[in-house]
Amino acid sequence: MLKRKITEELIKWKTNDKVKKKALLIKGLRQIGKTFIVRDFAHKYYKNEIYIDFKKNTELKKVFDGDFDIDRIMMDLSAKIPGIRFSPKETVIILDEIQECANARMSIKYFVEDGRYDVIATGSLLGVRGYNKKKGKGVPTGSEHIIYMNPLDFEEFLWAKGVSDAVIDYLKECFQKRKPVSQTVHESMLRYFKEYICVGGLPEAVNVFLNTGNLDLVYEEQQDILEEYKDDFGKHLNSEENEEIDRILLAKILEVFNSIPSQLAKENKKFQYSKIKKSARASEYEKAIQWLVDAGIVSKCFNLTNLDAPLEGNKISECFKLYMRDSGLFIAMLDKGTSGQVLSGNLGIYKGAIFENIVADYFSKMNRKLYYFQKESGLEIDFVTTYKGEVNLVEVKAKTGNTKSANTILSNYSLYKVKKCIKIGEYNIGETEDKLTIPYYLVFLLKE
């Protein structure tokens, strides 16, 4: 079983008795282990578990079509699912793939008001706007505590590989004290990190790698996952909650999705509609791009008009890059031998794209919004973020490389009002007055 950080959030939610407990709503991409983690948690912390998967058992939607009397719902569920038991304060109700049943989502409000049973809901397409077109009875505003589950981050990957807490604590100490990591540990972590780039954080891909060590088999698993994602493109539920596919939207989403590798291979990684097809216009593809963002498959990284905080107020909405939310899936979208090239360091035109994507992946897992800075003069910064209360430039270097643009900005404080830069690469830890240099494998420690 893979150890996940979200388990601590589940425990915190379960044991919180200072305020009235809300239901827990877990959003996240398909195939990231939401169901497994929630059910494992239920088995450990509750006497009874009532599990409902609305995607596999559509008949159970009918239970929620009537009123929201909790005793009536319990009776109907007991008739549909023999053997279940409802014990106040000892039972958790798991509503899996809740985006498939609008009225089940609304029933959460009444379960919370009743207070006898805990409720955990999960959904992989909850963020897709207009996915469920049933005219239900609303959303249970104020009754849900929403958390986002991501694929494994690099620290979780190290746990999966069996790297000891002592080694991870040592890395954290080196980062905090800004002292270099020993060469032996540094080289080992760089190797593990390159494995992580190739494997990514989806549990099935990680398990294949742990069990076989075979990146070809990992690639096959990733291809299967990509096909599953594509099967969801353009799907929605109609007013009767029957599945339908918007064929026009499906085609647009596929075109955008398939263009991502070529978009990131360019020197200027700004998303260009002409890379989809010459005649493409923004108005044709905005909805498709937003679908991929809402589904959690890609992240948007916006260019900035200037570097003043708050950054969100300076983003240029129509000028952005698209990054995959899982580095392993991005590698799987490239040529089959790319994993071997990552491990050997013999990368071609995708070198910059791969390492930028993993940093974007890192930042997204930390719930950081993504920004970059590019001017027509040629000034370009890979990422801009807030760290320790200050705006920081972030430069990503696959191996070595100068930071000419960053140096220009840092030397013109009166114009840009930025005095710090974080340089990320295969380097060891180092710090000067205006630059913090860290290896890729420590980006997960760049917390606020």
How would you sum up this structure, described in words?
- This protein is of the alpha/beta class and 448 residues long.
- It has two domains: 6-149, Rossmann fold, CATH 3.40.50.300; 154-445, no CATH class.
- 41% of the residues lie in helices and 19% in strands.
- It has 16 helices and 16 strands.
- It has helices spanning 6-15, 34-45, 70-80, 102-114, 154-161, 165-177, 183-199, 203-212, 215-232, 247-265, 282-294, 327-332, 338-344, 351-365, 404-410, 413-416, and strands at 23-28, 48-53, 91-96, 118-123, 144-149, 235-237, 243-245, 298-304, 315-324, 370-374, 380-381, 383-387, 390-396, 421-425, 430-431, 435-439.
- The strands form four sheets. A five-stranded parallel beta sheet has the order 2-3-4-1-5, with helices on both faces. It has a five-stranded mixed beta sheet with strand order 12-13-14-16-15.
- Strand 2 (48-53), helix 3 (70-80) and strand 3 form a beta-alpha-beta unit.
- Helix 1 (6-15) crosses helix 2 (34-45), helix 7 runs antiparallel to helix 13 and helix 10 packs across helix 11.
- The longest helix has 19 residues, at 247-265.
- It is globular.
- It starts with 5 loop residues before the first helix and ends in a 9-residue tail after the last strand.
- The model has no long low-confidence stretch (mean pLDDT 93).
Main-sheet strand order equals 2-3-4-1-5
Which structural class best describes the helix and strand composition?
alpha/beta
C-alpha end-to-end distance: 30 Å
- How large, in whole angstroms, is the Cα Rg? 23 Å
The average pLDDT is 93
Major sheet: 5 strands, parallel
When the domains are counted, the total is 2
How many E strands? 16
Low-confidence stretches: none
Helical amount among residues, as a percent range?
A: 40-55%
**What's the total helix number?**
16
Per DSSP, what share of the residues sits in E-state strands of 2 or more residues? 15-25%
Shape: globular
